[in-house]
Amino acid sequence: MMMPTPTNDRSRNSWFRGWTLELKVHKQPITWLTLLMFVLYLLAIVLGDPERPRNVYYFSEMAMFSVAVLLPLLLFQRDIGGGMEVLATYPVSLGQLVIRKWLLSLLLTVGLGIILMSVYAWFFGGIWTIRHPWNGAEAIPRAEMSVYSLILQNLPAYVLLNSLTIVGIVLFRRIYGGLVLGFALWVLDSISFGAWLGRWTLYASYLKKSYSFPQNRIGLLIASLLLLAFAVWLMGRRERWISAEEE
């Protein structure tokens, strides 16, 4: 049996330490804002009337979309601070840094979504909402869904908002760049009830019968991966941050 080399040990420790450092965000203002919003969403559920369940999409989509925007912000806030000059000095691959934060923000989004909708299912006795079959069959207007099938139905929209927010952070070299891009898409799609994005709406609940659900979800996933690739490429241009700060 081969013993792990010191180099491999250091590599594993560095990898583990990198992930644990990402989670040390308790001192960041956006962390407390995100927690406050999430607690308010939970209160909106448990303070409701059990005999008159609130609309599912208010929580699984509208509320969780805001969380999907905020999570990348709090993960980047400690590193970026007032500018990108801190990242310009990192002795690590900045592309890997982006991917790590993207994965973590997605995992946190899914985890919080499961918690929120589990509380909803417990309080109201189940989840009944529109269900879109992944095989392209006609949507069922009111069907009982499990927490996990509901999260899976909305996952591509979560991924897109995570990716778009990260692109905004990297593109504008400021946390608020991600905030503006992410919330702008969320707000415009929400107030237009899906009409602004049409067949590419974030909301499964707003998707018209003439639009294909699988096409919509796959399209959102492809757009998310393209945005992520752009963010990784742009972040990797380390000289961009250095030259910008020297000017």
Average residue pLDDT = 84
Helical percentage: 55-70%
Q: Assign an overall shape.
A: globular
Main beta sheet: 2 strands, antiparallel
Order of helices and strands: HHHHHEEHHHH
Overall number of strands: 2
Low-confidence stretches: 243-247
What's the arrangement of strands in the largest beta sheet? 1-2
Whole-number radius of gyration? 20 Å
Q: With helices defined by DSSP (H or I, 4 residues minimum), what is the helix count? A: 9
Indicate the structural class: mainly alpha
Strand residue percentage? under 5%
Q: Distance between termini?
A: 55 Å
Short description:
The protein has 247 residues and is mostly helical. Helix content is 69%, strand content 4%.
Keywords:
9 helices, single chain, 247 residues, mainly alpha, disordered C terminus, two-stranded antiparallel ribbon, globular
Walk me through the structure.
The chain is mainly α. It has helices at 6-22, 29-46, 57-80, 85-88, 94-124, 147-172, 175-191, 213-236, 238-246, and strands spanning 128-131, 140-144. Strands 1-2 form a two-stranded antiparallel sheet. Helix 2 (29-46) runs antiparallel to helix 3 and helix 5 packs antiparallel against helix 8. The model is unreliable at 243-247 (pLDDT under 50).
Summarize the topology.
Layout: H1 6-22, H2 29-46, H3 57-80, H4 85-88, H5 94-124, E1 128-131, E2 140-144, H6 147-172, H7 175-191, H8 213-236, H9 238-246
Helix pairs in contact: 2-3, 2-5, 3-5, 3-6, 3-7, 5-6, 5-8, 6-7, 6-8
